[in-house]
């Protein structure tokens, strides 16, 4: 039976093992103190949700760029069972990443960490342009993932990113027609971007329940 408390502890321990405290410029105890207050909300919010699978997980502990930069978190991701670490697509211009903000519909909580519930990699939206996927996502009463949330997904559940099971992150936009996406390249996770109106057979669009629970 799925135990949300055990899963929260696993996620937090995993971030510590990956070196998140040092990346944040904190001691391990200080890092744990930052995110530990989310534990009761994770337990309550995951009630009734099924156990994690490769495609769908009950919740994610999301660390934001307010605490650790995107590149630093990307560079400690790996594919399931692999060692090569994630990297940024060369088509991102210098200083491009900070321009990709969460879309206003998401209501992303301010602060260094928050919880996201009922997260799905959206493989049913493969071969649909992100624009069309967005319509399908909202019709389900759900909302798309941001870059921070996508990184949390593949960090805490590496098997979520698999061959022909990659996903766009329509929840992060920068005012043009680009949509960030996570896919596999050279045996490692890669953060790239695609066009809002272009479909790809291997690229779905990830989504989650609308509510996001922050520290305040």
User: Helical stretch count?
Assistant: 7
Major β-sheet annotation: 5 strands, mixed
Secondary structure class reads alpha+beta
Tell me the β content.
15-25%
Provide the succession of SSEs.
Answer: HHHHEHEEEHEHEEEEEEE
Strand order of the largest sheet: 2-9-8-6-10
Mean pLDDT level: 97
Q: How many separate domains?
A: 1
Helical amount among residues, as a percent range?
25-40%
Q: In angstroms, what separates the terminal alpha carbons? A: 30 Å
User: Uncertain spans, ≥5 residues at pLDDT below 50?
Assistant: none
- Estimated radius of gyration: 16 Å
Overall, the morphology is globular
Annotation, overall tally of beta strands: 12
Q: How is the topology of this model organized?
A:
Layout: H1 4-17, H2 20-23, H3 28-35, H4 39-45, E1 56-63, H5 70-74, E2 87-88, E3 101-102, E4 113-120, H6 130-139, E5 143-144, H7 147-156, E6 166-168, E7 172-173, E8 178-185, E9 188-195, E10 203-205, E11 207-208, E12 212-214
Task: Walk me through the structure.
This protein has one domain. It contains seven helices and twelve strands. The chain has helices at 4-17, 20-23, 28-35, 39-45, 70-74, 130-139, 147-156; strands at residues 56-63, 87-88, 101-102, 113-120, 143-144, 166-168, 172-173, 178-185, 188-195, 203-205, 207-208, 212-214. The chain has a five-stranded mixed sheet. The protein has a three-stranded antiparallel sheet with strand order 1-4-12. A hairpin with a 2-residue loop joins β8 (178-185) and β9. It is globular, with a radius of gyration of 16 Å. The two termini are 30 Å apart.
């Amino acid at each position: 039976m799925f135990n949300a408390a055990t899963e929260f502890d696993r996620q937090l321990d995993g971030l510590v093992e990956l070196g998140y405290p040092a990346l944040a410029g904190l001691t391990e105890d200080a890092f744990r103190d930052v995110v530990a207050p989310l534990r009761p909300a994770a337990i309550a919010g995951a009630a009734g949700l099924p156990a994690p699978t490769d495609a769908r997980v009950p919740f994610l502990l999301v660390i934001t760029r307010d605490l650790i930069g995107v590149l630093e978190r990307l560079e400690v991701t790996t594919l399931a069972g692999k060692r090569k670490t994630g990297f940024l697509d060369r088509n991102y211009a210098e200083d491009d990443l900070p321009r990709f903000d969460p879309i206003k519909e998401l209501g992303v909580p301010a602060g260094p960490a928050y919880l996201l519930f009922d997260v799905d990699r959206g493989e049913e939206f493969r071969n649909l342009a992100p624009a069309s996927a967005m319509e399908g996502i909202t019709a389900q009463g759900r909302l798309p993932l941001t870059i921070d949330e996508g990184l949390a997904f593949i960090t805490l559940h590496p098997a979520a990113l698999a061959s022909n099971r990659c996903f766009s992150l329509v929840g992060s936009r920068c005012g043009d027609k680009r949509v960030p996406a996570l896919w596999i390249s050279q045996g490692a996770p890669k953060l790239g971007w695609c066009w809002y109106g272009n479909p790809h057979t291997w690229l779905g669009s990830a989504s989650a329940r609308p509510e996001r629970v922050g520290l305040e």
